[in-house]
Amino acid sequence: MKKLKILLSIVFVTFLFTGCLYNFILPEDAPPVVDPDDPDAPEVSFVEVIEPIFNNSNYCTACHKTGGTAPDLTTGKAYASINSARYINSATPEESKIYTHPHPDTDTHKQKKYTSAQAAQILVWISQGAKNN
Ligand code: HEC
Q1: How far is 71 from 63, CA to CA, in rounded Å?
Q2: Whose CA is nearest to atom 3 of ligand 1?
Q3: Which of 14, 56, 82, 99 could bridge 87 with an S-S bond, Cβ 3.0-4.6 Å?
Q4: pLDDT, position 38
Q5: Alpha-carbon torsion 50, 122, 98, 85, what sign?
Q6: Is the shortest distance between the CB of 64 and ligand 1 below 6 Å?
Q7: 99 lines ligand 1 (CB under 6 A)
Q8: What's the pLDDT score for residue 19?
Q9: What is the DSSP string of 58-80?
């Protein structure tokens, strides 16, 4: 009986400390949702939308930084690093390596993947001409 009481108190105390924890998802972390099939999608800015995907909380730049793994995705360097046929296929945007390699539906990049919303942003940005905008 005493054991049961102790056990119940442990369970109670555990709930006391863990029961009310919430994971807050801050709205500014989530990129605005775009539809890659919408030709009238608002223009996706490289500086305001794409670069932050790479560097917010070092999401990609933890490894893809100057002197680290190529491509260098740090702010100010990212555009020059990915602006090549290796990473961007302007004729067939959905075959661009910067889109396909970390895509959530693939296994090519084990380290970290885009969320599907981020992947959509990347695809729209490439479809709109992969501009340094
Ligand atoms: C934990 C470290 C790490 C993180 C974080 C990471 N990567 Fe990588 N990435 C690598 C490594 C290692 C390779 C090379 C091996 C491979 O192809 O998976 C690579 C390869 C790549 C390639 C192919 C490079 C080439 O030239 O073939 C792309 C594109 C890429 N990563 C994009 C990203 C993006 C975008 C993010 C963020 C969503 C990201 N990576 C996050 C480690 C990382």
Answers
A1: 9
A2: 63
A3: 82
A4: 82
A5: negative
A6: yes
A7: no
A8: 56
A9: GTTTTTSSTTSSSS--STTTHHH
Cβ neighbours, 10 Å, residue 102? 21
Q: Name the burial class of residue 109, with classes exposed (0-12), middle (13-18) and buried (19+) by CB atoms within 10 angstroms of its CB.
A: middle
User: Using CA positions, which residue lies closest to atom 29 of ligand 1?
Assistant: 98
What is the C-alpha separation between 124 and 130, in angstroms, rounded? 9
Q: What is d(CA 34, CA 118) in angstroms, rounded to the nearest whole number?
A: 9
pTM of the full structure: 0.80
3-state helix, strand, coil in the chain (%, to 5): 45, 0, 55
State the pLDDT at residue 37: 79
- Extract the tokens encoding 28: 């500014």
d(Cα 47, Cα 105) in Å, to the nearest integer? 25
- Segment-wise mean pLDDT, segments of 10 residues, the chain, 133 residues: 62 54 53 73 94 97 98 98 98 97 96 95 96 97
Beta strands in the chain (DSSP E): none
Please work out whether the CB of residue 65 comes within 6 Å of at least one atom of ligand 1: no
